[in-house]
User: Fold Mycocerosic acid synthase from Stenotrophomonas maltophilia.
Amino acid sequence: MRAALYSTFGDPAAVLASGQAPLPEPGPGEVRIRTVLASIHNHDLLTVRGQYGYKPALPAIGGSEALGVVDALGEGVTGLQLGQRVAAASVQGTWAEAFIAPARMVIPMPEAIADETAAQLIAMPLSALMLLEFLHVEAGQWIVQNTANGAVGKSLAMLARAWRARRQPGAQRRGGGAAAGAGNRPRVRYLGGRLEGSRA
Assistant:
């Protein structure tokens, strides 16, 4: 199968290459998923650089979240069917034509959810949700949020509205209009190397 492989850690643009890898076979409790669309997260790139919390054995296939179709079931797997549209995150090797995932980590995806959304629906939105739940955020409370322009930040902005929490994005880089589109209205802005903003 085709895959995005790397044999050494480093700049993804330099060390990643398209190549051939054996088609993996699912073990007990696992499924094989034919990839439809895989996301590229910051932590994926940090993993390729060797700068994330763990280092995979090399050579490795990049990627940790994807949308696909179940095409093989390991022993003991129940609740999933061949041909079922699913997504998985916190797995390895999704930048390939197929990858293996523990069945317990696989989430069926309704056809109503577009591929582009389903391929990134787990890791980042759930991270934002867990932040709100871990902090026991309640309606009317303030959240001061930095890095509001990333996938977790945008998800947090939308979820905070549903929580009826009040948010203060900490900063916005020049050209960061996408953050504003997610509901961020920064009062602190980056201006030519210095920060300006309203007082708390």
In short: The chain has six helices and twelve strands. The two ends are 55 Å apart (CA to CA). Confidence is low (pLDDT under 50) at residues 186-200. The first helix runs from residue 12 to 15.
